[in-house]
Amino acid sequence: MNRVIKHTGSKYPIIQAPMGWIARSQLASAVCAAGGMGIIETSSGEIDNCKKEIEIMSELTTKPFGVNLPLLFLKDDSMVKFCVKSGVRFVTTSAGDPTKYVKTLKDAGITVYHVVPSLDGAIKAANAGVDGLVVEGTEGGGFKSPVEVGLLVLIQSIKQNIDLPIIAAGGIVDGAGMAAVFAAGAEGIQMGTRFVSSLESPVHNNFKNKIIDSSIDGTYILNKKSKPVIRALKTNLTRDIDEKGHMDMTSLFNIKELYFGGDMEAAPALSGQSAGLINEIKSVKEIIDEIINDFNSKCVSMGNLKF
Ligand SMILES: Cc1cc2nc3c(=O)[nH]c(=O)nc-3n(C[C@H](O)[C@H](O)[C@H](O)COP(=O)(O)O)c2cc1C
């Protein structure tokens, strides 16, 4: 059996990425309704709002959903305790050492996947006792590792060393992408940019349309010599940051004006290279149904290939 489906309890092994302010109940419940796994973010740091969003999820869906815990950004263990208390069954941990909370979460019956951008990170997470890995290639949007390794190379390398189920993230928007990472050894996919540009995504249409208008070279990796390293759409602001070669955290302070006010120059517009593969705003259900149909037909046609 596919281990990601066993662990998430969802119909399809399609996970909606955690994204600060965006990955809340409106988007996550639509993903759950369409057979995927919606994830509630906590990286916004708005812990009380995120707790409310988790409670709302229980009202909006009877399907399983998950929560992301960015370890370095958690001020204390209150969010961990809240997940345990509210019956969350699936957690992804990221940005930090999963050892800190893996036992508490697993003792509460919660499945824990850790987000890794490297083989080293994957080995450490496996040693910490996590149940699976979200493997993020450099193609993806948002906060990135300064070491740029493409998703397919990363999955193959991790598969050679570790037998844990892998959810592949970065650059996937369709059934062909899903089939490619499954062939490499993944058992699930996680998508950020595709879901940001969905009908149910809460972001301003200016952001969705900018993703749709982008080409595959329409993003920069910024701030590689410092922290945080991010991948974002090409705009006047990000061109300046790219030319300077440096970005400080204050550049991200106005990100809500970009996400919800539609000012594309208010902050870097986090996005993956996958923006160049997205041509239309579609509902979450259309996105997931198309991916599954396309994936199934790709598998049949590949099954007929013999050399
Ligand atoms: C707009 C946007 C915001 C993101 N914010 C976060 C975040 O707050 N926390 C996080 O762990 N990952 C964040 N990510 C990364 C995603 O979780 C995911 O790994 C990535 O989007 C996968 O690549 P894709 O965009 O090509 O699908 C963000 C991505 C996007 C596009």
Protein described:
- There is one protein chain.
- By secondary structure, this protein is an alpha/beta fold.
- The chain has two domains: 222 residues, TIM Barrel; 71 residues, no CATH class.
- Helices cover 41% and strands 15% of the residues.
- The chain is built from 13 helices and eleven strands.
- The strands form two sheets. Strands 1-9-8-6-5-4-3-2 form an eight-stranded parallel β-sheet. Strands 7-11-10 form a three-stranded antiparallel β-sheet, with helices on one face.
- Strand 5, helix 6 and strand 6 form a beta-alpha-beta unit.
- Helix 8 crosses helix 13.
- It is globular and about 50 Å long.
- The chain starts with a helix and ends with a helix.
- The model has no long low-confidence stretch (mean pLDDT 96).
- The structure holds flavin mononucleotide.
- The site of flavin mononucleotide has 30 residues, from strand 3, strand 7, strand 9 and helix 9.
Secondary structure topology:
Layout lengths: L2 H6 L5 E3 L8 H9 L5 E2 L6 H14 L5 E5 L7 H8 L4 E5 L4 H9 L3 E6 L2 H10 L3 E5 L5 E3 L6 H11 L4 E4 L5 H10 L3 E4 L1 H4 L8 H9 L5 E4 L6 E5 L2 H9 L10 H7 L22 H20 L4
Parallel strand pairs: 1-9, 2-3, 3-4, 4-5, 5-6, 6-8, 8-9
Antiparallel strand pairs: 7-11, 10-11
Helix pairs in contact: 8-13
The structure holds flavin mononucleotide.
The site of flavin mononucleotide has 30 residues, from strand 3, strand 7, strand 9 and helix 9.
